[in-house]
Amino acid sequence: MAASALPLFFEHVEQALEHAPHEVRRLFHGRGQQWPGLEQLTCDWLQGQLEVTLFKAVDDAFLNELVAGLVRLSQSALWQQQQGQSIFIQHRYADGAPTKVIVGEINDRPIVQEHGLSFQLDLGRNQNMGIFLDMRFGRQWVQQHAQHKNVLNLFAYTCGFSVAAMAGGADQVVNVDMSRGSLAKGRVNHQLNEHNLNQVKFLGHDIFKSWGKIRKSGPYELIIIDPPSFQKGSFALTKDYQKILRRLPDLLADGGQVLACVNSPMVSSDFLLDAMREHAPDVVFSHRLDNPPEFADIDNEAALKALVFNYQAPSPE
What we know:
The protein folds into two domains: about 5-105, Transcription Regulator spoIIAA (2-Layer Sandwich), CATH 3.30.750.80; about 135-310, Vaccinia Virus protein VP39 (Rossmann fold). It contains ten helices and 16 strands. It has helices at about 5-20, 60-75, 75-80, 135-145, 160-165, 180-190, 210-215, 235-245, 250, 270-280; strands at about 25-30, 40-45, 50-55, 85-90, 100-105, 110-115, 115-120, 150-155, 170-175, 200-205, 220-225, 230, 235, 250-260, 285-290, 305-310.
């Protein structure tokens, strides 16, 4: 990356911050490859806290100029107007993704809002903060399509989709994730939104070893599949996604919907479309959700792919 490109970074950050709504929002998305010299840099507004993330090591000139610019931002009228509290840089490329505080002190467990819903973040300790900001249109879609539905949320993480589904009037949501720690955070997110936990299940299991338990709570009118691209020892996208798709007809109610997601720049939407046609031909593609405009990418197929499918049960012979 190039220190000479940083004035453009600060110009975009200040412009986005000035118009930021009262909720979490990405301010700058260098990974969309639109700004040469800034490809491995992002900036997120966390309602009073600014997180800048470096995805690749940079030279001292770049880092020093970045830090100096962030300090200047903290001294601006705009920062005071937006009630800024802290600025920190996460070095995502390094072991443990260490975080360096530039201004103020981190509130490492803030409660933030998105589309009227509350979520607790976990900052400064993990690669991911607890919510994926590029999926906000996906969560909004789920909220709009969950009423009176039995919902299955696979690879639930901290249950963002589940929170959206309950807010949208779902009858039940079943969350499945092998990380019990993530599901515990999901339980907190539901409590923050005053949801009835009797309607929410948390299954801390390996999905591929738990189809019996998952099927027991079905059939489902809405299934969400949002796996990691790779999780050592448990999931490899191009090898394991098909194993999920072939289970869908046994899990879905007639007329049910699937939101299937892929978030790897190495895999296009054709991968998912072709795999669904092969392994679940009665689950038919409907449309792809737009990504939030702040996540614009010069290659739409390198960005998040969130695809909606409809299931029509085959007629009995």
